[in-house]
Design goal:
248 residues; alpha+beta; de novo design (two linked rop proteins); 4-stranded antiparallel sheet
Length: 248
């Protein structure tokens, strides 16, 4: 196996992410710009030569062809830059809606073909709690209702787009599960399964905003872009965006 050096950016330029669409088309996110080749590395283009500022610290990039790519940046403020004509022109958004705050620095941007529907996940979790009451008998009706009420509250708040209230209700559910396990009401295995499910939902809600330790975020389908990015999500994000329902 051999490697060929196709391009040396020099000592003062970090290459942060490489995205190969094919053996001939490759996009690169770098500290001071976006670079791309459509001839297998024989020649390279620089976004700085096409009107896109070179001081934005581009951290992530994803592309679907030699014409269309999205890049995230993290210097001074966050943003998403997009080209649909092979890098000749770029548009950049720094807010996801007119009323939204400026984006934080974004590290990665990726595509996903399977949407995550948080409503369905919470509904499924309610069914699992009901099984613990009706089928398994680990919880009595009152204990089961104490958990279900919290999940239903989270679901209602999510439908209303009241994310902080939904987070609080999910966190209360998690605390109640922990209390049942510590009190010997729930077997450790059953409690762990419930905890893993609710933590997964919380992580994909907006954990970077409330100190949950995650530095990436998958946007639920309800808040993703379905038209390639012209209709932005209203949801605040952390260090990563994953477009949902892109149709790839």
């Amino acid at each position: 196996m051999t490697w060929d050096l196709q391009w040396d950016p020099g000592d003062n330029l970090d290459l942060n992410e490489v995205y190969a669409v094919s053996s001939s088309t490759v996009w690169v996110a770098a500290d001071f710009g976006i670079f791309w080749t459509t001839d297998g590395g024989e020649t390279w283009e620089n976004s700085g030569d096409h009107g896109l500022s070179g001081d934005l610290a581009f951290m992530g990039i994803s592309a679907v062809s030699a014409d269309e790519a999205w890049a995230s940046h993290a210097a001074r403020y966050g943003g998403i830059s997009h080209t649909s004509d092979g890098g000749n022109n770029w548009t950049t958004i720094e807010k996801l809606c007119d009323e939204c705050e400026d984006l934080p620095g974004l590290w990665t941007i990726s595509f996903a073909t399977q949407p995550i529907n948080l409503d369905d996940l919470i509904t499924s979790l309610i069914e699992d709690v009901e099984q613990l009451v009706v089928k398994d008998g680990f919880l009595n009706k009152g204990q089961g209702n104490a958990l279900i009420v919290k999940l239903e509250k989270a679901l209602d708040r999510l439908v209303d787009d009241r994310l902080k209230a939904a987070f609080n209700a999910l966190n209360a559910f998690s605390s109640q599960v922990d209390a049942f396990v510590r009190g010997g009401v729930l077997p450790i295995e059953s409690g762990q399964e419930l905890s893993e499910q609710v933590n997964y939902i919380i992580e994909h809600l907006y954990s970077p905003l409330y100190g949950q330790g995650s530095r990436s975020l998958i946007l639920p389908m309800r808040e993703g872009t379905t038209d390639g990015g012209t209709i932005p999500t209203k949801r605040k994000v952390g260090r990563s965006i994953i477009w949902r329902s892109h149709g790839l």
